[in-house]
Design a protein that fits this description.
By secondary structure, this protein is an alpha/beta fold. The protein has a five-stranded parallel sheet, with helices on both faces. Helix 11 runs parallel beside helix 12 and helix 24 packs antiparallel against helix 25.
């Protein structure tokens, strides 16, 4: 008999979930069970079974929650990814030969007018609305465009369990779920949602099973024993007798069989069926039977917590690659880890918690310090910034050096790569944590608030971005910090420029330039020369614009600032294109693209693909132009840059207009108008609306 020993005894639960899928109503499912009962495994199996269901089009998304994650933060992540969970059928959309992205296909489906505007609004966060309201709006729009047999499933699994007081926020969302949306929550009986009578009383909340995940029955335990019999040297009767003491607890039974298969004696198994004692026995086996290197490896995994690449855990553990591979060739040791995210982590939180508890403070500090060194090195390498290092460095700095060091690491080391990689949610969450650690009105608050302004501007929320930069400027002025004031003036200038207020934008950039010149700060001077060049180009003064960009390029070349050089090459390319020198323009844009690709700078890559698309369109090579604009759009959607998306929708519309496909052009331009409206760019709304009006017809 073939038995999946990792998943036995939960067939009834899967059948119950199959019935949940058949109901079109939006529903929340509570999977309740104590630690080790297999809540996460069951939730994952449910999601997997749904995605492979013969009768339903399903897609799932997973969110791990800790006590430091507010419901609003989790919901904001869900806002950003709700479209991707819709699981809609490829090729089913009018005039869409291939689904380049679910989001774009959904947009094309919608009728023109107010509904399209509502959906565009849902693509950004509205600071005036709470996350619950926005999430429900977006899920409702997704639901309205899903096929009758389509379902979107969100698995919400607490890694460290939800903070007290979060039940009400989730109750409001779960109680109003639109059709075809399913939430799966993993909870212990005493946890926030499982213990909330108000949450469980909602008529669309189900518990699978009706009570809580129970122990395996005798036959299910026997199935597990039979599956492992060939690996265990002890007589099967003795194994049955030994395992019986664990009363069918899935984690305990499976771990006991793993221990016996690894050569542990029956007498080594704990008599106490408490799962924590099983974790203790697993750790004891690692220590006693597998040597000091195994201890180091698993202590490193425990300290690192999240999924990490092999080279990271090897460096933090102090082991070479060959030793790590040799250890994990052992089936017992390999069974203690799982693949997740960018690498591997300890398989179960029970085991991880126990291992961390056994590591002395000095040893833990040493592991954290090695993690700090590894992540700093990965961020300092002259390659694309490392995502894991950018997200995790400050956590390990906090463990070793405390809150002040956490803030400094975030501000000075992690912020730039997080911005370059478009990891705005991670940066925002870390920034809010850091704000709780800093003094009101201090340098750190000004810097962090300014960084939040950059995030809001990237998302197209100009009002919130302006508020952040003005708060930062207020602090910097009180402190007399000229460098910080210059940065804020420059950022405010970019906001005014986006809004089309060129006079106010120029005033801000000149204030920033004046301060940087006074300080002799070449990098700041280069940035402001570049910003002024953009304003002059917009006004049509190409000679003055070129002079500004060449000043900026000269400084950036002197400093060896690749990012600045890429920006300057791109801006010069735009000037050459405007003058009609397409070959020179293309050369500039390709130089800029090459640098941005080397830096892994997604925003810069998107800009240059878009610029190359403009050149190919001017030459009449519409296929190549479309390919460039679609590459740019793909990156802009990934970054959530609404202005960039609007630009590319506008450019694609121009291509289709040139081809004589007026209705497709109208659709793209309609999307661009809605986005420019939401961002607050009236000059661009007027421009693109003029193109639409010029088509005639509707």
């Amino acid at each position: 008999m073939s038995v999946d020993r990792a998943f036995v005894g939960r067939a009834d639960e899967l059948k119950q979930f199959a019935q949940v899928l058949r109901s079109p109503r939006g529903q929340a499912v509570l999977i309740v069970g104590q630690q080790g009962m297999g809540k996460t495994l069951l939730a994952n199996r449910m999601a997997g079974a749904a995605e492979n269901h013969p009768d339903f089009l399903c897609s799932s998304d997973r969110f791990e929650v800790t006590q430091t994650d507010s419901p609003a933060q989790v919901m904001e992540l869900m806002l950003d990814r709700a479209f991707d969970a819709a699981g809609l059928e490829e090729g089913s959309f009018e005039k869409t030969e291939r689904r380049t992205s679910q989001r774009f296909a959904l947009l094309k489906l919608l009728p023109k007018g107010d509904v399209l505007g509502d959906l565009i609004k849902s693509l950004r966060r509205d600071p005036k609305k709470n996350a619950r309201e926005q999430l429900l709006e977006k899920l409702g729009l997704v639901s309205s465009r899903m096929a009758d047999n389509a379902r979107a499933i969100f698995v919400i699994d607490p890694e460290k369990y939800m903070a007290p007081g979060s039940a009400d926020a989730w109750r409001i969302v779960a109680g109003n779920l639109p059709d075809k949306i399913k939430f799966l929550f993993a909870q212990r009986p005493e946890d926030v949602l499982a213990a909330s009578a108000e949450f469980k009383s909602l008529d669309n909340v189900l518990t699978i099973p009706e009570g809580a995940l129970d122990a395996l029955d005798a036959q299910e335990v026997e199935d597990l024993i039979q599956a492992r019999d060939a690996e265990i040297a002890q007589p099967i009767m003795d194994v049955r007798a030994a395992v019986e003491r664990y009363e069918g607890h899935p984690y305990a039974v499976a771990a006991a069989l793993d221990l016996l298969a690894d050569g542990a004696a029956i007498s080594d198994l704990p008599a106490d069926p408490t799962p924590g004692r099983i974790a203790e026995a697993q750790w004891g086996r690692v220590c006693d039977a597998h040597g000091e290197d195994a201890v180091k490896l698993f202590e490193a995994y425990a300290i690192l917590e999240v999924g990490v690449p092999n080279e990271v855990v090897a460096a933090v553990s102090g082991l070479d690659s060959a030793t790590r591979k040799s250890l994990l060739a052992n089936r017992f040791l390999l069974g203690l880890i799982r693949t997740e995210g960018q690498g591997s982590r300890l398989y179960h939180s029970l085991f991880g918690d126990h291992v961390r508890d056994q590591v002395s403070e000095d040893e833990a500090e040493a592991y954290h310090q090695r993690a700090v060194d590894v992540y700093r090195q990965r961020l300092g390498a002259d390659v694309r910034p490392d995502r894991l290092a950018a997200e995790r460095l400050s956590e390990h700095v906090l463990a070793v050096e405390g809150e002040e060091a956490f803030v400094l690491a975030l501000v000075n080391v992690c912020t730039e790569p997080l911005l370059l990689l478009g990891l705005f949610e991670s940066l925002e969450a870390l920034s809010h944590r850091a704000l709780d650690m800093v003094e009101d009105g201090g340098v750190e608050e000004a810097t962090i608030t300014g960084n939040l302004g950059l995030i809001f501007r990237t998302r197209g929320d100009l009002d919130q971005a302006e508020a952040m930069h003005r708060r930062s400027l207020e602090i910097e002025e009180k402190l007399g910090r000229l460098e910080g004031m210059a940065s804020d003036y420059g950022n405010l200038g970019l906001i005014f420029e986006t809004r089309g207020d060129l006079d106010q934008a120029e005033a801000m950039h000149r204030k920033a330039l004046e301060i940087n010149e006074k300080l002799g700060r070449l990098e700041g001077m280069a940035s402001q020369y570049g910003n002024l060049g953009l304003i002059f180009r917009t006004r049509g003064d190409l000679d003055q614009a070129e002079a500004m960009h060449r000043k900026a390029l000269e400084i950036n070349e002197k400093l060896g600032r690749l990012e600045g050089m890429a920006s300057d090459y791109g801006n010069l390319g735009l000037i050459f294109k405007t003058r009609g020198d397409l070959d020179q323009a293309e050369a500039m844009h390709r130089k800029a693209l090459e640098i941005n690709e080397k830096l892994g700078r997604l925003e810069g890559m998107a800009n240059q693909y878009g610029n190359l698309g403009l050149i190919f369109r001017t030459r009449g090579d519409l296929d190549q132009a479309e390919a460039m604009h679609r590459k740019s759009l793909e990156i802009e959607e990934k970054l959530g840059r609404l202005e960039g998306m609007a630009n590319q929708y506008g450019n694609l519309g121009l291509i289709f207009e040139t081809r004589g496909e007026a209705e497709t052009a109208r659709e793209y331009w309609g999307m661009a108008v809605e986005l420019y409206t939401q961002i607050g760019m009236p000059h661009m709304v007027e421009k693109v609306q003029g193109w639409i009006d010029g088509l005639g017809g509707e």
